[in-house]
Amino acid sequence: RAEIEAQIDFSDEGDVGALPDSFAADVAALQHEIGEVLATRSQGRILRSGFRVVLAGPPNAGKSSLLNALSRSDAAIVSDEPGTTRDLKEVPLDVRGQLIILVDSAGLRQTSSKAEAIGVERARQAMLGADLVLWLRAPDVAAERTMSSPADGALPPVLVIGTKGDLDAVAGADLVVSAATGAGIAALLDRLYEASGAASVRPAELLVSHERDREALLAAVGSLSRVGGQLQSSELAAEDLRQASFALERLLGRMDAESVLDRLFSAFCILSFSFS
Fold first, then answer.
1. Radius of gyration, alpha carbons of the chain
2. Which has more pLDDT, 273 or 11?
3. What digits encode the pLDDT tens for the residues 153-207?
4. Which of 98, 117, 192, 247 has the fewest CB atoms found within 10 Å of its own CB?
5. CA 40/CA 28 separation, integer angstroms
6. Cα angle 34-39-45, degrees, rounded to a multiple of 5
7. Among residues 52, 86, 66, which one has the least CA distance to residue 137?
8. In what order do the strands lie in the sheet with 51-56?
9. Per-residue burial over 19-29, b = 16 or more CB atoms within 10 Å of its CB, e = otherwise
10. Exposed / middle / buried, residue 129 (Cβ in 10 Å: 0-12, 13-18, 19+)
11. What is the pLDDT of residues 99-151, one digit of tens each?
12. What's the pLDDT score for residue 151?
């Protein structure tokens, strides 16, 4: 901003020449760097709010039992009666420092019970809002024809889990576990940690986790993207740089005009006067 505003306000000064040859490239590099930070939005949200994992499948597939095994608690009621789970049950887990939120849900099936039907619909909506769906299949439960994903959206990534591995094998499963014996539970926790992306985050990496931060960065990128095409008009380019600065103020604290003037006066031989 100081470089280009010098062209506007102090063009008659002897040491104010043309913009540096690297000016447009520097603006483009800044735009690219902010874009890379914006790409961390999803990972930042997961680190701040948790990685949501919905346990889904037909009734009696072992969702509540698996929830209890993963959390090492009796958080969910376990029963042989189909339709026992009718509401969402959330249990937070700390897996190597990453917050993982397990969500137990109602078994997906056609039902004449109004209460159970509400639970089934809530389960479908929870699947849409998940970061990962664990679709459970059990050897003693008839295989479902479809996951019956809601028509108004697509499912997130799905991991097929064969449950009740102590009874029999489950064909087509990505991983087989047994809540009764504990087999496969540790391996499943490892898969959840890997799926969260926590292992790939560098300690010093800047992550965007709030929507207001994302909006500010998008505004800055939008302003910077226009600068390169308007360098023939210093006033327009300067205004876009000002708008980019104003957007970043919401992230970094207020950056007032004095900061720009200090940079301008330090870079050019321009006299400043104060009047009392």
1. 28
2. 11
3. 567 899 999 998 888 878 889 999 999 999 999 999 999 999 888 776 655 455 6
4. 117
5. 19
6. 115
7. 66
8. 89-95, 98-104, 51-56, 132-137, 158-162, 175-176
9. eeeebeeebee
10. exposed
11. 899 999 887 877 767 777 788 888 888 898 899 999 998 888 776 544 443 33
12. 39
* Residue in 156, 174, 208, 177 with CA at minimum distance from that of residue 44: 208
Residue appearing with tokens 């439960």: 141
Look at residues 243, 212, 211 and name the one whose alpha carbon lies nearest to residue 27. Answer: 243
Neighbours of 172 (CB within 10 A): 8
SS3 annotation, 111-130: CCCHHHHHHHHHHHHHHHCC
DSSP assignments along the chain, one per residue? -HHHHHHHH-TTSTT--SPPTTHHHHHHHHHHHHHHHHTTHHHHHHHHH-EEEEEE-STTSSHHHHHHHHHTS--S---SSTT---S-EEEEEEETTEEEEEEE-PPP---S-HHHHHHHHHHHHHHHT-SEEEEEE-TTSPPPS-----TTS----EEEEE--TTT---TT-SEE--TTT-TTHHHHHHHHHHHHTGGG--TT-----SHHHHHHHHHHHHHHHHHGGGTTSHHHHHHHHHHHHHHHHHHH----HHHHHHHHHHHS--------
Residue listed under structure tokens 């339709």: 83
Reported residue count of the chain is 276
* Rounded distance between C-alpha atoms, residue 274 and residue 276, angstroms: 7
Given this model, what pLDDT does residue 146 score? 43
